[in-house]
């Protein structure tokens, strides 16, 4: 039977220490011992301890101070303090310093097992919560952002600095640069990380619908409003809301948003009283908001309120060093998704990726890799799997005098790609190309593909 958890008993009285160890081992706990605080701290460094049972009077350190040290270094570990008769104040002080509870030596033997059980339940729950947080940090935190280029590193450092605050952040950058990924990472690194993260695209709704989505409405506020509805600001209360494409926000809603930023309150559609929230606001846009302000399309007071802290995310063409690692990450993800064993890409494949300008940024790279994975019949991605707009950038020497900017070179690459997809079946390739089999053989001969 697996142990219920691991205990550490710290007491310089060997007889009592051995007695407690035997009692708790009979309850299926794994128990380790220490005679001094120093020895106990060393065991905590080297082993995962769920619950500590410690005497208040130790030869090298007071148990109350030891409690503070343990809770500071191992917050998920629970501590039960053993006090001598008449020293209950020591137990109370230990609880104030983070101990789970105290027990008086000799008088409370019947309490020790249920008390340890409760402390163990709490410790294991806290450990599960910490494990979950670590998984979330890995999935949604800054570790999720791939890239070591100077531009990427600078953006990450700024985001990490502002994450711990409640400051409003404006994320700037072209479409597809990963603004929502950065927003999630900022939230996950903030004190609000255990509370909701809500993202809304301001360009995806009409003005009326967006107002209802953001702030909610009362029943009867408009046709179809048959019951009260909570808005996204309420859903995100105590957490973070990302307003993506903030530059598309209607002027009337800009005014309402400004009030939320200034007072953390708003009035629902059809309501007469204010609703209060506690929300951190992150905003993102691919527009130049200063230009929009100058044109009269965006409120200057809202712009200044949103742009307290700006982070500009670099375009992919400005961080070519990151293309290889990003491509490897997408290959790992999509090959697992479609159950293919694809190990990497050819040197030529990477050269082509790095020579392209990527107007769609990381999002476009992700789509290109997904497409290549679907078409790939081997274990490595090569140039033949790239779409025309990327593949044609290479100057091809195919012994015909053509370059990739010639229609002939484009046709050659397309035929090769379709042949790969058809596993070399020329009849199937001709059908897919919508040409006759004789025409296909002629072109194979012309392009030396046969």
Task: Characterize this entry briefly.
By secondary structure, this protein is of the alpha/beta class.
Describe the structure.
- With 450 residues, this protein is of the alpha/beta class.
- The chain folds into three domains: 6-135, Response regulator (Rossmann fold, 3-Layer(aba) Sandwich), CATH 3.40.50; 141-314, 3-Layer(aba) Sandwich (Rossmann fold), CATH 3.40.50; 317-446, Helicase, Ruva Protein, domain 3, CATH 1.10.8.
- It contains 19 helices and 16 strands.
- The protein has helices at 14-25, 37-46, 63-73, 88-96, 112-140, 150-163, 179-188, 207-215, 232-235, 251-263, 289-294, 300-306, 323-337, 347-355, 361-375, 388-391, 407-421, 426-433, 437-446, and strands spanning 6-10, 30-34, 51-55, 78-83, 101-104, 169-172, 197-201, 216-217, 229-230, 240-244, 265-267, 274-276, 280-285, 309-312, 344-345, 380-381.
- The strands form five sheets. A five-stranded parallel sheet has the order 2-1-3-4-5, sandwiched between helices.
- Strand 3, helix 3 and strand 4 (78-83) form a beta-alpha-beta unit.
- Helix 6 packs parallel to helix 7, helix 13 crosses helix 15 (361-375) and helix 17 (407-421) crosses helix 18 (426-433).
- The longest helix is centred in the N-terminal third of the chain and has 29 residues, at 112-140.
- The N and C termini lie far apart (65 Å).
């Amino acid at each position: 039977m697996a142990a219920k958890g691991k205990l550490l008993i710290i007491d310089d009285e060997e007889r009592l220490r051995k007695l407690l160890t035997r009692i708790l081992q009979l309850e299926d706990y794994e128990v380790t011992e220490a005679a001094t605080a120093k020895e106990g701290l060393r065991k905590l460094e080297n082993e995962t301890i769920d619950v500590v049972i410690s005497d208040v009077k130790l030869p090298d350190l007071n148990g109350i101070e030891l409690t503070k040290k343990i809770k500071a270094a191992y917050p998920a570990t629970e501590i039960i303090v053993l006090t001598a008769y008449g020293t209950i104040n020591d137990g109370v002080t230990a609880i104030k310093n983070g101990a789970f509870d105290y027990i008086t030596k000799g008088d409370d033997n019947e309490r020790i097992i249920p008390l340890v059980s409760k402390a163990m339940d709490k410790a294991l729950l806290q450990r599960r919560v910490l494990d979950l947080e670590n998984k979330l940090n890995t999935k949604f935190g800054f570790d999720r952002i791939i890239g070591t280029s100077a531009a990427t590193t600078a953006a990450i450092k700024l985001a990490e600095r502002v994450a711990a605050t409640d400051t409003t952040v404006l994320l700037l950058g072209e479409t597809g640069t990963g603004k929502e990924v950065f927003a999630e990472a900022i939230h996950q690194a903030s004190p609000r990380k255990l509370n909701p993260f809500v993202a809304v695209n301001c360009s995806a709704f009409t003005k009326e619908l967006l107002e209802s989505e953001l702030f909610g409405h009362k029943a009867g506020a408009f046709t179809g409003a048959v019951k009260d509805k909570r808005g996204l600001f309420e859903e995100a209360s105590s957490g973070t809301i990302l307003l993506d494409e903030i530059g598309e926000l209607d002027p009337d809603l800009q005014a309402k948003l400004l009030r939320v930023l200034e007072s953390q309150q708003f009035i629902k559609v059809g309501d007469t009283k204010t609703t209060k929230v506690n929300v951190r606001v992150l905003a993102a846009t691919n527009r130049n908001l200063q230009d929009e302000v100058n044109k009269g399309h965006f409120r200057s007071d809202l712009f200044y309120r949103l742009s307290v802290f700006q982070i500009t995310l670099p375009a992919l063409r400005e961080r070519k060093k990151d293309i290889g690692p990003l491509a490897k990450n997408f290959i790992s993800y999509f090959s697992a998704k479609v159950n293919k064993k694809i190990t990497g890409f050819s040197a030529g494949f990477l050269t082509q990726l790095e020579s392209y300008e990527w107007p769609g940024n990381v999002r476009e790279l992700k789509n290109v890799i997904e497409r290549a994975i679907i078409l790939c019949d081997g274990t490595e991605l090569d140039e033949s799997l790239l779409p025309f707009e990327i593949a044609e950038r290479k100057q091809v020497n195919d012994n015909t005098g053509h370059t990739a900017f010639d229609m002939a070179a484009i046709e050659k690459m397309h035929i090769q790609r379709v042949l790969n997809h058809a596993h070399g079946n020329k009849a199937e390739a001709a059908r897919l190309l919508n040409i006759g089999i004789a025409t296909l053989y002629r072109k194979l001969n012309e392009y030396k593909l046969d």
